[in-house]
Specification:
Cytochrome Bc1 Complex, Chain D, domain 2; binds heme C; alpha/beta; ten-stranded mixed sheet; D-Maltodextrin-Binding Protein, domain 2; disordered N terminus; 3 domains; 13 strands
Length: 377
């Protein structure tokens, strides 16, 4: 209802602003109504992308018209809006060529975004391993959580939303927060703090957004490309005016070598071929299990939450007891849980989903090792 109302209002405003110049077709821009400070249908200022959209339309000599549409459906949102001709441009799509094959063209980059390490105002850090021994708040199922789990000795505190992680930092219930940067200015305003914000450069932790247009609009794409190049300073100033900033930068190559290799693989072999090719000899099995132990204890950092060698800090997290808990279903329970994660747990901690972070091969190695550890009572 709220979204519908603002859509009508924005359309009406654009119509009024268009004035007597009815010749120019409006530039219809798709924006998410609820991702402040990037774009928002609420309040007096409608966000960075909205203001960039207004300037792009002005530069093209066309009236600006917004079409609010939530983007939490990801590619589906792009399909239902931009590719269904509901708008001419969608601001905020990932700056990745080939994201949706030839159907989506991208212009930009528009804005650099990513995960930031947030410290109290007086905080400073020169190296990522200075986090060891500290409580670091992260959001469930975020890439930051995955990265943090590879760092031995950090005490992760997991929340559903990055906003909650930042509030915990403000309340000194955490020493740092490692979160997606967009909500930082908002929580700073809410809590009256000014945090120290450090951009973390590392695999999957930073990306660039773009202006997306549909196939067939090559001319518009080229114009937007040119305009966005010339607007870099202006866009940076708009972002700062919304409170987005970096007080420092650190680089951190956190990704386990195995996961990096995986992303290079062009095509997954079919499961049947893979099984046949990998029927392991006993020696290989031992080597695989040893690799699983190493992944568990250090590389992937499962031991942070499940204890070294899977001797859990409490019964529900003691992974040697899975066979007692699930009997013959324990292998299924393993795959279901490591792939999808688990939100509702007895300790209140969150079990992250690993399907996008750890390779199938690594998870199989951990399973092979855990198999040998199962206790009967
Ligand atoms: C941030 C903490 C955290 C990390 C890191 C973590 N887990 Fe978990 N894991 C949990 C919690 C909490 C549970 C749920 C226990 C419960 O249900 O109360 C869980 C449950 C599981 C279960 C199901 C156990 C059962 O008996 O139901 C498996 C299997 C598991 N984790 C494997 C792993 C593996 C493998 C890794 C590393 C790749 C890993 N976990 C990393 C917190 C974590």
């Amino acid at each position: 209802m709220r979204r519908l109302a603002s859509l009508t209002l924005a359309a009406a405003t654009a119509f009024l602003l268009a004035g007597p110049d009815v010749a120019a077709e409006p530039l219809r821009v798709c924006l998410d109504p609820d991702t402040p400070p990037l774009s928002t249908a609420q309040g007096d200022r409608h966000g960075i992308y909205y203001e960039v959209g207004e300037r792009l339309a002005a530069a093209l000599g066309r009236p600006f018209q917004v079409y609010w549409w939530p983007t939490d459906l990801g590619k589906r949102a792009i399909r239902l809006t931009l590719l269904a001709d509901r708008c001419d441009v969608m601001l905020g799509v990932p700056h990745v060529k080939g994201l949706m094959g030839p159907r989506l063209l991208v212009a930009g980059p528009l804005l650099e975004l990513g995960y930031v390490l947030v410290l109290p105002e007086e905080g400073a850090i020169d190296r990522i391993d200075e986090l060891v021994g500290r409580r670091v708040a992260v959001a469930f199922n975020s890439e930051a959580q995955n990265a943090l789990a590879t760092l031995d000795g950090v005490v992760p505190v997991t929340f559903r939303e990055p906003e909650q992680a930042l509030r915990a930092l403000a309340a000194r219930e955490a020493d740092a927060a490692f979160v997606w940067e967009a909500p930082v200015p908002w929580i700073e305003r809410e809590t009256g703090r000014r945090f120290t914000v450090i951009a973390i450069d590392g695999p999957r932790l930073r990306w660039q957004s773009a202006a997306g247009v549909a196939r067939g609009n090559e001319a518009l794409r080229d114009r937007l490309d040119e305009l966005l190049r010339g607007m870099r300073e202006e866009i940076a100033a708009i972002a700062r005016s919304y409170g987005l900033r970096y007080d420092g930068r650190l680089s951190w190559n956190w990704l386990p070598a195995s996961a990096e290799r995986r992303s290079d693989l062009p095509v997954e072999p079919s499961p049947i071929v893979r099984v046949a090719a990998e029927a392991p000899a006993a020696d290989d099995l031992r080597a695989v299990a040893e690799r699983g132990r190493e992944l568990f204890n250090s590389v992937l950092g499962c031991a942070h939450c499940h204890g070294p060698d899977a001797v859990g800090p409490d019964k529900p997290r003691d992974l040697r007891r899975m066979k007692i808990r699930y009997r013959t279903g324990w292998v299924d329970a393993y795959w279901e849980t490591v792939r999808e994660g688990r939100l509702q747990t007895q300790s209140g901690l969150v079990m992250p989903a690993w399907k996008d972070t750890a390779s199938e091969e690594d998870l199989r190695a951990i399973l092979a090792w855990l198999t040998g550890l199962q206790v009967s009572r």
